[in-house]
User: Which sequence fits this backbone?
């Protein structure tokens, strides 16, 4: 069972004359994504928003300059996902390039210490002699951990991008575009983006103070943009103008052969080509391998890969990450089969799915529940929360939402209406994490669905695949596909174009029992290859169907240095 999707063309507002230099189809694509000015398409580093708009940046820089002057022992506390890993590597590399000599990092193991600067992590940092703790991609909710560090005489600088709760931690400085009264226009910075901005501000102040000399010139912080780009895409933050600049600049460095060894090793192990890397490769090839360390083992392995000084060592780490990713996929597949079996039983008991799906099984792996929640959300178009065993008597949950429902705000409302039901929670609009008591799982499920009913309209619960309309056969070409790639980077909230059209099936066969390979003919006789990954092998191939309507992405198949157009099928509707 799964929820059927409908194909619907995006509405296109009036197209601004400022977009007239682009191909007509690309003009339409940009307009439908809210682009009205060429300034919104800027991709030069000079067009990045100024760091001066970030609240707390001056206090943060002052803390770091004091630490530099005294060569204090700094401990960076990161997070166990790809954003946390790239944030840690970015800040550590950047600080060392600026002359800091005593910098190390800690990253919590999700199975022992949980998320962020917890009390336990603060104790470890203090025991290691930290004089200044700097959080990356966490800290805005670390009330108790920061209080302990301050009590022990250690200063704390928080850099984060997550939404704050009602109480802010008593840190010496906080840099977070989402904290109250911060004027930074882009609230979408990933944790790695915040860390990068901190380094930009620090370098600028050091330059003003005359710190750099001929023998110690200012470092080129653009060297860090491959890390920033990877972390930004991996964390699935919306690609607004500022984030697109960061991602584009990082991709350009990688394509020009300037990737650091760790990222180059991840590219190699994923069988990608650096000179043709796309933002989608970050999300679907590199990030899963990096994330596998935090999901199954310890993210220190991923950070070690990113910090590797040479390619041989980086490849060693990348091979370990690849093995973990294979293991992660196997675990996930088993969990997904069990979840599907549960949902099939549910479908026999009811004509409708609940508005929110809450799933739990005692032997599910805590490190994979987020991926499972995302997969089920895609199949059923429902907000999904998946739980696994946590500490004694507790369940750890991972939530994924659908457009239109802010999952972190929903959890906040549940917590307010039912005090004590949720022990801890945090996250974003589309993803969140939480902890509840095992004995209260059923109560939580009822409360969550009750509160969610106020927001989940039938329209929100209808799965729609939006397209950019029909694409003429003259655009089914390698040159136009290249134009599309260059028009990005594409990603969250700036989606890669999807087109629709009617075709006649000339050939169809299954590859590896799961991928549908097609030869299609357009209405005016143009033949084009297509592939539908993970197609329904019970429904396809279907020799009785010849005419179909297809929603697809335009791709370039590069085989033995020969390029040809290929359609990546997203959905097929049978016509006849």
Assistant:
């Amino acid at each position: 069972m799964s929820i059927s999707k409908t194909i619907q063309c995006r509405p296109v507002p009036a197209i601004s004359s400022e977009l007239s230099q682009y191909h007509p189809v690309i003009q339409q694509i940009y307009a439908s994504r809210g682009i009205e000015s060429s300034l919104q398409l800027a991709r030069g580093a000079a067009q990045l928003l100024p760091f001066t708009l970030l609240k707390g940046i001056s206090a943060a820089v002052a803390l770091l300059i004091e630490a530099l002057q005294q060569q204090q022992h700094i401990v960076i506390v990161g997070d166990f996902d790809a954003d946390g890993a790239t944030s840690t590597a970015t800040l550590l590399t950047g600080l060392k390039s600026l002359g800091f000599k005593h910098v190390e990092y800690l990253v919590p193991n999700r199975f022992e210490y949980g998320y962020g600067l917890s009390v336990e992590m603060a104790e470890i940092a203090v025991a290691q002699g930290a004089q200044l703790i700097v959080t990356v991609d966490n800290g805005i909710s670390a009330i108790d951990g920061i209080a302990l560090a301050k009590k022990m005489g250690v200063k704390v600088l928080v850099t984060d991008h997550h939404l704050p709760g009602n109480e802010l931690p008593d840190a010496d400085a906080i840099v977070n575009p989402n904290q109250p009264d911060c004027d930074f226009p882009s609230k979408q910075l990933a944790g790695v983006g915040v860390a990068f901005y901190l380094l930009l501000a620090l370098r600028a102040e050091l330059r003003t103070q005359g710190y750099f000399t001929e023998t110690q010139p200012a470092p080129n912080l653009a060297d860090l943009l491959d890390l920033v780009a990877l972390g930004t895409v991996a964390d699935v933050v919306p690609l607004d103008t500022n984030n697109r600049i960061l991602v584009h600049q990082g991709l350009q460095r990688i394509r020009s052969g300037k990737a650091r060894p760790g990222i180059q090793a991840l590219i190699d192990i994923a069988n990608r080509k650096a000179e043709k890397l796309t933002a989608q490769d970050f999300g679907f090839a590199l990030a899963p391998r990096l994330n596998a360390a935090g999901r199954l083992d310890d993210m220190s392995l991923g950070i070690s890969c990113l910090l590797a000084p040479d390619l041989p060592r980086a490849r060693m780490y990348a091979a370990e990450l690849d093995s973990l990713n294979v293991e992660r996929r196997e675990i996930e597949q088993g969990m997904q089969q069990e979840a599907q079996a549960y949902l099939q039983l549910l479908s026999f008991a009811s004509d409708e799915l609940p508005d929110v799906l809450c799933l739990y099984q005692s032997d599910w792996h805590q490190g994979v529940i987020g991926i499972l929640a995302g997969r089920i959300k895609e199949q059923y178009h429902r907000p999904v929360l998946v739980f696994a065993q946590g500490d004694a008597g507790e369940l750890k949950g991972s939530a994924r939402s659908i457009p239109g429902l802010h999952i972190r705000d929903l959890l906040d409302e549940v917590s307010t209406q039912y005090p004590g039901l949720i022990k801890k929670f945090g996250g974003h609009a589309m993803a969140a994490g939480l902890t509840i008591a095992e004995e209260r799982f059923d109560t939580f499920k009822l409360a969550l669905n009750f509160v969610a009913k106020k927001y989940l309209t039938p329209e929100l619960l209808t799965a729609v695949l939006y397209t950019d309309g029909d694409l003429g056969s003259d655009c089914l070409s390698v040159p136009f596909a290249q134009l599309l790639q260059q028009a990005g980077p594409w990603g969250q909230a700036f989606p890669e174009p999807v087109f629709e059209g009617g075709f006649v099936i000339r050939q169809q066969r299954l590859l590896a029992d799961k991928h549908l390979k097609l030869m299609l003919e357009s209405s005016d006789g143009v033949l084009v290859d297509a592939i539908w990954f993970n197609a329904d092998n019970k429904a396809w191939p279907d020799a009785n169907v010849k005419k179909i309507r297809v929603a697809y992405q335009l791709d370039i198949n590069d085989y033995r240095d020969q390029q040809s157009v290929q359609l990546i099928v997203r959905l097929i509707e049978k016509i006849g």
Summary: The mean pLDDT is 93.
